[in-house]
Specification:
It contains eleven helices and five strands. It has 272 residues and is an alpha/beta fold. A five-stranded parallel β-sheet has the order 2-3-1-4-5, with helices on both faces.
Length: 272
Amino acid sequence: MGSAYIYIAGLPHSGTTLLSLLLGKHPSLVALGEVNLQLRRMRERPADMPDSVCGCGSAVTECPLWGPVWQAVRRGADSGADHRLVRGAFASLYGDVAQPVDASKLKEPLFAMAEAGHRDVRVIHLIRDFRSAVASDLVRRRRSKKGGRAGWLLGLQFARRWLRENRKIDAALQKTGLPVLRLGYEELVLVPRRAWPLIWEFLGLESAEIPGDIAGSRNHIFVGNLMRGQEAKREVRYDGRWFQRTEWLAPMLLFASVHRRNRRWVYGNNLV
């Protein structure tokens, strides 16, 4: 297949960072984190860059990948060329011996890459079971004290957003025609021995050891989900808190399309 640009699409807190770091353990892959977010941070908070540390261990301004991008941004490079800058810096650093993994999540870069003629992009659309996603969202809201409404109402609100945003990503992928693997977070975490051969085949990679944690992941991540620096989150574990919660029941009963899409998107590969 040659050197491809691997893009992970999905909603926040759906496991995209975990997947990117797990992919970074393959000898042919390097995790770049949320490229869009990191480029935006460079432009909006340039004073932070000298003190920011990349996952490779270097300061961002001295990083062999981000350093050249940072210099181009400082020289006034057009933001519309940001992804080309990253791809160029990656190619200069790794040549054809490694492929980048971009976990930007968003649908907008998909259109930009398709319009730029980058036909070497391969997309993994990672989707978390909405019941687990609802429970996780409610826990975060309670911790931040933003969840004053009744749990079942918040469950309805989040389930509708889950459906709406995943539909948008799905529509973007259909419109761009980019190759896509729709993968359930539950498939990735609960049955890794069945999920990883599917991932490697889609990416055109040789099989490797199935990763059980993110330790040793080759990455250039300097902002975003901090799981890479939290020992408790390094091991792949399934968050089963939704088994003891009921807020997902209302959307399950009221929104037939949520239940239908959940089965198709999350478990469509028939791995679980």
